[in-house]
């Protein structure tokens, strides 16, 4: 693996193999149309700050979500056209998360209560998630929230 790589932009790719010997210095990942057969073991992204995931078929139980859950320094998470998910994984260990974007995740139905465990969240954009039917009242407990959008989330009405 490239030991000094900080920025990675992938299209139609995936991570495969055991990364136990590698300690990633990646700080920014943009991953578009990833292969659904995610098979990376021991991939640690402790320094990751920005993760953008677009156009994927990952389901609620995909191993790929473990990457995000372990990225404890994550500040920006953008999930766009993640049509395989019906709920977002529990990201409550991402205590520094400042910006969360969920856009055009057409099967997304609910956001769980753990959202209140994100004390640094200043921007929450949920847009074009037409089947979103449940948003917890704990969103109101996000005291640092400055920008909140539910544009195009018709299922909430």
Characterization of this structure:
By secondary structure, the protein is mainly beta. The chain has a single domain, classed as Ribonuclease Inhibitor (Leucine-rich repeat, LRR (right-handed beta-alpha superhelix)), CATH 3.80.10. About 5% of the residues lie in helices and about 25% in strands. The protein contains 1 helix and 9 strands. The chain has one helix at about 65-70; strands at about 5-10, 15-20, 30, 40, 50-55, 75-80, 100-105, 125, 145-150. The chain has a 7-stranded parallel beta sheet with strand order 1-3-5-6-7-8-9, with no helix packed on it. Helix 1 (about 65-70) links the parallel strand 5 and strand 6. The N and C termini lie far apart (about 50 Å).
Short description:
It contains one helix and nine strands.
């Amino acid at each position: 693996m490239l030991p000094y790589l900080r920025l990675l932009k992938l299209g139609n790719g995936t991570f495969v193999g055991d990364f136990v010997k590698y300690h990633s210095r990646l700080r920014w990942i943009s991953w578009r149309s990833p292969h659904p057969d995610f098979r990376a073991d021991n991939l640690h992204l402790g320094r990751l700050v920005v993760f953008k995931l677009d156009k994927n078929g990952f389901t609620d139980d995909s191993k790929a979500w473990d990457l995000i859950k372990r990225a404890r320094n994550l500040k920006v998470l953008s999930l766009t056209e993640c049509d395989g998910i019906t709920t977002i994984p529990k990201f409550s260990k991402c205590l520094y998360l400042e910006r969360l974007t969920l856009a055009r995740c057409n099967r997304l139905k609910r956001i769980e209560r753990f959202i209140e465990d994100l004390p640094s969240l200043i921007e929450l954009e949920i847009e074009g998630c037409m089947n979103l039917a449940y948003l917890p009242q704990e969103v109101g407990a996000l005291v640092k929230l400055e920008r909140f959008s539910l544009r195009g989330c018709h299922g909430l009405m």
